[in-house]
Write a structure and sequence with these properties.
Pfam families: Ysc84. InterPro entries: SH3_domain_YSC84-like, Ysc84_actin-binding. This is Ysc84 actin-binding domain-containing protein. One of its GO terms (molecular function) is phosphatidylinositol binding. The structure is a single chain. The protein is α+β, with helices and mostly antiparallel strands. About 35% of the residues lie in helices and about 30% in strands. It contains seven helices and nine strands; from the N terminus they run αααββββαβββββααα. Strands 1, 2, 3, 4, 5, 6, 7, 8 and 9 form a nine-stranded mixed β-sheet that branches.
């Protein structure tokens, strides 16, 4: 289990700057594909009102789960936050996430993960150097389906909703204890400077967003426009 996670980390450290940037661009492309597939899934899509009201979105297109009895998770992904004035998603920051799970389990599995940040407290937690789901912010399995939004009480919404996809099916999942951190190395490889998540999401320090980042923002805003 530890060898699998360690191997992933070591491979990322061995990449050249050009290779690392290409990998980051692929992460953006894969993340957008995940959202596209979610929003075009008739029976398993995220309710449109939830994603339109989300203050930020986190996408991990390849979360690796592996283990026996005690399992480990590791994934690399991105986050984007809506601007207060326009409601549009801005430049992405790169993230890593990991966690442990206990219980009968065997083998390895690749999972796509999406997190919707719904509240100001959840957003403030995201801007920390390290966010622990369930401790810094409440996380719960998100409702799915076109008609699920009708059953959601606005006053009862969670801080962060989680969704995962394995073998082509989307479903809400619980990820309490998962730790999410800024991937400063990936941000450096992509932007040319060491940025923390809040530098990009709040402080607007990522002035020059590469073309792939612009395409990601345009695609995300098309698929998940702000609430009108």
């Amino acid at each position: 289990m530890r060898k699998i996670v360690l191997t992933i980390i070591l491979l990322s450290l061995c990449a050249t700057p050009a290779q690392a940037k290409e990998e980051n661009e692929q992460t953006l492309k894969d993340s957008l594909s995940v959202i596209h597939e979610i929003m075009n899934s008739p029976d398993h899509q995220i309710p449109s009102n939830l994603i339109s009201e989300a203050k930020a979105i986190l996408i991990f297109p390849t979360l690796v789960k592996a283990g026996f009895v005690v399992g480990a998770r590791y994934g690399e992904g991105v986050a984007s936050m809506r601007a207060r004035k326009t409601g549009k998603f801005g430049p992405p920051t790169f993230l890593t996430q990991g966690g442990l799970s206990i219980g009968f389990q065997i083998g390895a599995e690749a999972v796509d993960l999406v997190l919707l940040v719904m509240t100001q407290r959840g957003l403030e937690s995201l801007l920390k150097d390290e966010l622990t789901l369930g401790a810094d912010a409440a996380v719960s399995a998100g409702p799915v389906g076109r008609h699920a939004e009708a059953a959601i009480d606005v006053g009862m919404r969670g801080e962060i909703y989680s969704y995962s996809r394995s073998k082509g099916a989307f479903a809400g999942v619980s990820l309490k204890g998962t730790v999410i951190s800024t991937d400063e190395k990936a941000n450096f490889d992509y932007y040319g400077r060491f940025f923390k998540a809040k530098d990009i999401l709040i402080r607007g320090k990522a002035k020059k967003v590469p073309a792939s980042g612009q395409r990601f923002m345009e695609g995300l805003n098309f698929l998940a426009p702000p609430k009108r």
